Amino acid sequence: MSKVTEAGNNALSVVNPVVGTFAALPNGFRNLLKNKGLIRNLVSRDISQRYRNSIMGYFWTILEPLLLSAVYFFLFTIIAGNPEERYPLWIILGVITWQFFSRGLNDSVNCLVGNKNMIKQIYFPREVFAFSKVISQLVITIASLVVVIPFMIHLGIEPTTQLFLFPVALMLVTLQVLGVGWLLSVPNVHHGDIAHLTRFITRAGFFVSPVMWTVSMAKGSREEMLNYLFLNPMVVPLELMRAAFDGTNPPIPDWAIYWSVSFSLLSLVVGLTFFKKTESKVVKRL
Question: Model-level pTM?
């Protein structure tokens, strides 16, 4: 809902006007740049609330993915008998990357509903809510990756030039989460089922994405399914993250990389444009 406020010389200015389709994207990016201080405060608040009333505090950033990886390692390696020496490293990298995607997406989809009291009290660009949620998860993810270092030392893996794939992988996930989050956050105000569906998709996606397994493992008996597998835009970031730390070349065809990059950029453009076109109409529904 657009608001009209009184400015100097009794002139009226429109707060949060509805923007045109082609102006939506630059307007959204401009608002993010203008509100960097607010975004920092929201990120700090989100991270503090996550570990509030916790005895171990921020140590859970490292401990949680480590414990989850230990459970999965027990199930998939000890019980299933996977002999690959680097499998524990692949598991923990897959878990950390997927947690970023899953939590970032769920948080951004719920960003308007979760901040409805603040939205009703004061106006500022609402695209900052999803952005701050995703950046909070990005900070937590980067901090979590500290746990990878002991694994690399134990396996005798030294950093290589492949390490540049690490920020590339995180950027692809960030763009996907932001785009889809902005796209679904407004409909989620009208239909809460979207949040439930998103949680289901992220949980089911854990098993159909190469989190607990790798593309190399799928080759052979399931090689005919690889082309369909690469249609999942999260496959490329997951494999790039592993390649960044173990120094190997990711077994990804060029077309799959182009598809993942294109999907990430397109989701960002479509998501932010749709958000800017529709978010002003949902305040009365909060």
Answer: 0.88
3-class SS of residue 264: helix
pLDDT tens track for 195-226: 999 999 999 999 889 998 888 877 765 666 77
In this structure, are residues 88 and 246 in contact, taking their beta carbons and an 8 Å threshold?
A: no
Cα within 13 Å of Cα(51), Cβ side: 17
Domain that residue 124 falls in: 20-285
Q: CB–CB of 252/229 below 8 Å?
A: no
Q: For residue 6, with 0-12 CB atoms within 10 Å meaning exposed, 13-18 middle and 19 or more buried, which class applies?
A: exposed
Closest CA to 206 of 110, 109, 91: 91
Residue whose entry in the numeric block shows the structure tokens 């399914």? 225
Mean pLDDT, residues 50-77 = 72
Name the token pair of 84: 């690959």
Task: Read off the pLDDT of each residue in 92-111 and give the average, rounded to a whole number.
Answer: 94
Read off the pLDDT of residues 230-240 as tens digits, 9 standing for 90 and up: 999 999 999 99
Q: How far apart are CA 153 and CA 246, in angstroms?
A: 11
Distance (Å, whole) CA 230 – CA 31: 35
**Residue 3, SS3?**
strand
Distance CA 52, CA 45 (A): 10
Q: Six-digit token pair at 195?
A: 């949040």
Name which of 175, 178, 148, 177 is nearest 163 in CA terms: 148
Q: Is residue 70 part of a domain?
A: yes
Is 180 part of any domain? yes
> Which residue's entry shows tokens 């400015």?
7
pLDDT 10s digits, 163-198: 999 999 999 999 999 999 999 999 999 988 999 999
* Count of domains for the chain: 1
